[in-house]
Design brief:
The protein is built from eight helices and twelve strands. It has about 400 residues and is an alpha+beta fold. The chain has an eight-stranded mixed barrel with strand order 5-6-7-8-11-12-10-9. Strands 1-2 form a two-stranded antiparallel ribbon. The protein has a two-stranded antiparallel sheet with strand order 3-4. The protein is globular. The two termini are about 35 Å apart.
């Protein structure tokens, strides 16, 4: 693993390592062309990245994307826009001006001394100085506490990221390893009603993982990306927002299937949710599909349930949001089943209209769909969505 590292990021496979090197080369090229001290240039660069002009494949690229986002937001908050430019003269004049102001203050300070005031005024001045010193000490203490808190937060965050990475590496090794299962595995019985039950066999490669956590429902993988994770399912859509496969608290959460989906009595559409982590974990790289070229190169998605394998082809890529209940609008997160062919076709038309580009892939009534959903910062309660059709 030591060899699979780029820009301080560890990569799981050789393919990811090569992709990270491509990202690093592109980032170096961008830095050589864009003056990061020019607000307009940075804001324009970020707009180009949002529009898909530059395509990143790994967490290395996502880190750079986050850096440019934060820098662009900083410039925007200072009132700059795409046309803003700071002159070289202004940069040079900035420090001398500050020095001049400092010299003036020092000169003024030299002109007045404590002895120039009467006794009562001297006492008042000394009292004010003591008050100011107390406030300063309190401020230093407060800043120190905040700094310790921040370092603690980042330490905990780094711990969770590192632990999460190691955990999923070990889970990947367990996938397909039936040596730990042997004759201990007895299949799964699903009770729909007291009278109706279904006996199912878990695929051999997932039996060991299923024995570790019965909430496992499948595994999602997209080749040449960081997305290669188990998919969980429980009776609510909250638990795995902040718990990992081992059921430990983890702010990265886990990928999880919507609670109302049924992989046995198959829904028309299965929806998988995951956090958009800045580290690139979970669905942190899903929005790379906003770039059409990236979408073409990663058109196939592998989603195996624990009972059967499945391959899906990307059909629609769009941005949406969580709407109020009384808003009459297409809500992709409520599209699980349809009652008729007309309803199915209507949903397809809604998604096609939202899609960022035409993949050329369409679906017919009766096809099985897969939807991947994550947060999107382009608007309040925004969501980034990729919809695929099962092809095998």
């Amino acid at each position: 693993m030591a060899g699979f590292e780029v820009a301080g990021r560890r990569l799981r496979t050789e393919a990811d390592y090569k992709a990270a090197l491509r990202d690093q080369k592109l980032i170096q090229q961008i830095r050589s062309q864009v003056d990061m001290e020019q607000p307009g240039a940075v804001i324009t660069l970020y707009s180009d990245m949002q529009a898909g002009k530059y395509r990143f494949e790994t967490v290395v690229g996502n880190d750079f994307d986050d850096e440019i986002y934060e820098l662009a937001e900083k410039y925007k908050s200072q009132g700059y826009n795409k046309d803003s430019r700071v002159s070289a003269r202004k940069k040079r004049e900035k420090k001398p001006k500050q020095k001049k102001q400092k010299d003036v203050k020092q000169q003024k300070a030299k002109q007045v001394s404590l002895e120039d005031y009467d006794a009562d005024m001297q006492k008042e001045i000394l009292a004010q100085i003591k008050k100011r010193d107390r406030r300063r000490r309190l401020l230093v203490i407060l800043c120190s506490v905040v700094a310790v808190g921040c370092f603690g937060y980042f330490g905990v965050y780094s711990f969770f990221v590192e632990r999460n990475e190691m955990d999923y590496e070990s889970l990947s090794r367990l996938k397909g390893n039936s040596a730990l299962t042997g004759s201990l595995f007895h299949g799964v019985t699903i009770h729909y009603t007291e009278e109706e039950e279904v006996e199912l066999e878990v695929l051999e490669e997932y039996q060991t993982l299923y024995n570790k956590n019965k909430k496992l429902i499948g595994w999602l993988k997209i080749d040449d990306t960081i997305i290669d994770y188990p998919v969980m399912q429980t009776v609510n859509n909250e638990y795995y927002l902040d718990h990992n496969f081992n059921q430990e608290y983890d702010k990265n959460g886990s990928l999880f299937l919507d609670k109302d989906c049924d992989v046995v009595r198959r829904n028309t559409n299965l929806i998988i949710y995951g956090h958009h982590m800045k580290s690139g974990k979970m669905f942190g790289s899903l929005n790379s599909y906003s770039n059409e070229e990236y979408g073409k190169k990663h058109a196939l998605i592998q989603f195996d349930t624990i009972y059967e394998k499945g391959t899906y082809e990307v059909m629609y890529v769009f941005r949406s949001r969580i709407y109020n209940e009384d808003e009459v609008v297409f809500k992709y997160y409520q599209f699980l089943d349809v009652a008729s062919e007309a309803e199915f076709n209507s949903n397809m038309q809604e998604m096609a209209a939202l899609s960022l580009y035409d993949t050329g892939v369409t679906a017919r009534y009766g096809d099985e769909l897969l939807t991947l959903s994550t947060c999107d910062s382009s608007e309040a309660d925004g969501r980034f969505v990729v919809v695929a059709k099962r092809v095998s």
